[in-house]
C-alpha cells in the first residue's frame, strides 16, 4: 500500500516570522549574510562561502556571463546554464573568470606593425580607446607599448601610419608587477596620475590592464565574491548525461562550483555524475532537486557538496501539473533542513542546502533562511533585471523581459538541433512567459537585502546561523492572509477621479 503523508504540503506564504526581542546590537548594518555553499567538517572553514545567500537559476533566461559578473560583484553566485553546447558554456565561464574585478584581460591587442586604421577599426568594434600593443598581438604577448586616443590625431594622421611610430613605447610606460592587489594598483594609478596601468610578468608579458575609471566601481562593491586570483567566482550547471565531456571543459575554463540541474535529483544518474566528478576533479558539486529526507541523504552519501531543494515550485514550472510530482516548497525545505541538522549532529559534516524556486516576495527569502536554507536560488527574481540575457520588450504601457523554463520547448530546442533534429521531447515541464522589467540588479538587490536585514533584526539575529537557531515561525490561516495585505481601505492611485 502506498505511504501517505497526511500533513498538507505547504508554501512560504502560509508562514510568518514572530519577532524576538531586538537588542541594541541588532541593527541592519551589523547583519552579516555570509553563508557556506559547500560542505565542511565541524570546526573547519567552509571551502566556499557566499557573501549574500543568493544564487541565480541554471536557466537560459537568467544566468549567462553578464548575470554572473553582476551577481558575483554583489556577493552571490550564478550557475551558468548548461542547456547550450559545451564550448559556449565554457566560453561564458571563461568570460566571467577573465573579468578580474578591476583587472581586465586585454583580448583585442595589436602589433607594432598594424596601422592607425587598424586601431580605429578596433575602437569601433570594441568601444575601447586604449589598445595594448604586444609582439604577436595576443592577450598575453610581450608588451611593447600602449596606444590611446591621445597618441594620434584622427583627422590629420594618415590611416596607414604604423603603430610603432606613434605608440607610447614600453620604456615610457608605468607598469604594475604580477600579483599586485587591486588597492596597490589603484594607489599607483593615483600616485602617477595614470588612466591605465598595464600589469606585466617578469618577462614583460602582459597579464592585465587596470583602468582608473573603474576605481569607483571597486569601492562600490565591498561584498564582491572573488577567488584567490581576484577573479569573480563562477558556477556552472551540468547534466547527468554529457558530464564526462562537459565537466573537464568547465573546470578547464575556471568554474569554481558545479551543480547538477534536474527537476528530480533522487536518481542513480546523479550518484554516477557526482562519483565521476569526485574521482577526477577537486571542485565542489551540488546536486538535486529533492524534497525529502531520503533524497537528501542519498545525494549526501553520493558525495554532494550541497543539496538543492524544491520540485514544482518554480514560477514557470508546470511539473506538478504535468507529472503529479512535487511538494510545497516550505514543507520540503523544513524536512530537508531537519535531515541536514541531524546528519551534522551525527557525522560532524555540514551540508549546505539551497532552497530553489517559488520565491515570490522578498520575505520568502528570509523565511527560507529561517527554515534552514543556507542560500536560495531564484529564476524569476533575476530574470526581471537589465543583466539577464533576455530581450526587454514593451507590452502595452509596460516593459517586460522574456522568461522561459528550462523544461519548455524553447529552452530545449538547442538540444533538439544538437541531436540532429530528433524529436525526443513529448511534453513540456515549463512555460514561456514575460516578467515585469524591474531595472538594475544592484538597486533591486539593495532593497531586498535591506528588507532581509531588517526582518533579521526583528528576529534578534545578525547572522543566518543565528536566525535559523532563534526563528519562531507560525502558520497563517486563510483569513489572516487577507489581514496581511492592505484591507478595508480604498487604495489611492487607482484611477478614481476627484477634485
Ligand atoms: P523561480 O525562482 O520561482 O522562477 O524558480 C526557478 C527554478 O525553477 C529554477 O531554479 C529551477 O529549479 C526551476 N525550473 C526552471 N525551469 C523549469 C521548468 O521548465 N520546469 C520546472 N521547473 C523549472
From TrEMBL:
GO biological process assignments: GMP biosynthetic process; GTP biosynthetic process
Catalytic residue positions: 317 (thioimidate intermediate), 416 (proton acceptor)
Top-level taxon: Bacteria
Keyword Membrane in record: no
Binding site for K(+): 312, 314, 317
EC number(s) reported in the record: 1.1.1.205
Keyword match Oxidoreductase: yes
Keywords: CBS domain, GMP biosynthesis, Metal-binding, NAD, Oxidoreductase, Potassium, Purine biosynthesis
Single GO molecular function: IMP dehydrogenase activity
Enzyme class per UniProt: oxidoreductase
Family stated for the protein in its record: Belongs to the IMPDH/GMPR family.
PANTHER family hit by this protein: INOSINE-5'-MONOPHOSPHATE DEHYDROGENASE, INOSINE-5-MONOPHOSPHATE DEHYDROGENASE RELATED
Protein name stated in the entry: IMP dehydrogenase
Organism expressing this protein natively: Cohnella nanjingensis
Lineage summary: Bacteria, Bacillati, Bacillota, Bacilli, Bacillales
Amino acid at each position: 500500500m502506498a505511504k501517505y503523508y497526511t500533513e498538507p504540503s505547504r508554501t512560504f506564504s502560509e508562514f510568518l516570522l514572530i519577532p524576538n526581542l531586538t537588542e541594541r546590537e541588532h541593527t541592519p548594518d551589523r547583519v552579516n549574510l555570509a553563508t557556506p555553499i559547500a560542505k565542511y567538517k565541524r570546526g573547519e572553514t567552509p571551502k566556499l562561502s557566499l557573501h549574500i545567500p543568493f544564487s541565480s537559476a541554471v536557466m537560459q533566461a537568467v544566468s549567462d556571463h553578464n548575470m554572473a559578473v553582476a551577481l558575483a560583484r554583489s556577493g552571490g553566485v550564478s550557475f551558468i546554464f548548461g542547456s547550450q553546447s559545451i564550448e559556449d558554456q565554457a566560453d561564458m565561464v571563461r568570460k566571467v573568470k577573465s573579468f578580474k574585478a578591476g583587472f581586465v584581460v586585454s583580448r583585442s591587442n595589436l602589433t607594432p606593425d598594424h596601422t592607425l586604421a587598424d586601431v580605429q577599426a578596433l575602437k569601433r568594434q570594441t568601444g575601447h580607446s586604449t589598445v595594448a600593443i604586444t609582439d604577436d598581438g595576443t592577450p598575453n604577448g610581450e608588451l611593447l607599448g600602449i596606444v590611446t586616443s591621445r597618441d594620434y590625431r584622427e583627422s590629420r594622421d594618415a590611416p596607414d601610419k604604423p603603430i610603432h611610430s606613434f605608440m607610447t613605447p614600453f620604456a615610457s610606460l608605468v607598469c604594475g608587477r604580477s600579483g599586485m592587489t587591486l588597492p596597490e594598483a589603484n594607489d599607483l594609478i593615483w600616485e602617477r596620475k595614470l588612466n591605465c596601468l598595464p600589469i606585466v610578468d617578469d618577462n614583460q608579458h602582459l597579464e592585465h590592464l587596470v583602468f582608473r575609471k573603474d576605481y569607483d566601481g571597486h569601492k562600490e562593491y565591498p561584498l564582491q565574491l572573488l577567488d584567490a586570483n581576484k577573479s569573480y567566482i563562477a558556477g556552472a550547471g551540468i547534466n547527468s548525461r554529457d558530464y564526462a565531456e562537459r565537466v573537464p571543459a568547465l573546470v578547464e575554463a575556471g568554474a569554481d562550483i558545479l551543480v547538477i540541474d534536474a527537476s528530480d535529483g533522487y536518481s542513480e544518474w546523479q550518484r554516477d555524475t557526482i562519483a565521476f566528478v569526485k574521482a577526477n576533479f577537486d571542485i565542489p558539486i551540488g546536486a538535486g532537486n529533492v524534497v525529502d529526507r531520503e533524497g537528501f541523504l542519498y545525494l549526501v552519501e553520493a558525495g554532494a557538496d550541497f543539496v538543492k531543494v524544491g520540485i514544482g515550485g518554480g514560477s514557470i514550472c508546470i511539473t506538478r501539473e504535468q507529472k503529479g510530482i512535487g511538494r510545497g516548497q516550505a514543507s520540503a525545505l523544513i524536512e530537508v533542513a531537519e535531515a541536514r541538522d541531524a546528519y551534522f549532529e551525527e557525522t560532524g559534516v555540514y551540508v549546505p542546502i539551497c532552497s530553489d524556486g517559488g520565491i515570490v516576495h522578498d520575505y520568502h527569502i528570509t523565511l527560507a533562511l529561517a527554515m534552514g536554507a543556507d542560500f536560495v536560488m531564484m529564476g524569476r527574481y533575476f530574470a526581471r533585471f537589465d543583466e539577464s540575457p533576455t530581450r526587454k520588450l514593451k507590452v502595452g504601457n509596460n516593459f517586460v523581459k522574456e522568461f522561459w523554463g528550462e523544461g519548455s520547448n524553447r529552452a530545449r530546442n538547442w538540444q533538439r538541433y544538437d541531436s540532429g533534429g530528433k524529436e525526443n521531447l513529448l511534453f513540456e515541464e515549463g512555460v514561456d512567459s514575460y516578467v515585469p522589467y524591474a531595472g538594475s540588479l544592484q538597486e533591486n538587490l539593495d532593497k531586498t537585502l535591506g528588507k532581509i536585514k531588517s526582518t533579521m533584526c526583528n528576529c534578534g539575529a545578525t547572522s543566518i546561523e543565528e536566525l535559523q537557531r532563534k526563528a519562531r515561525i507560525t502558520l497563517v490561516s486563510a483569513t489572516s492572509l487577507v489581514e496581511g495585505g492592505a484591507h478595508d481601505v480604498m487604495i489611492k492611485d487607482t484611477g478614481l477621479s476627484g477634485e
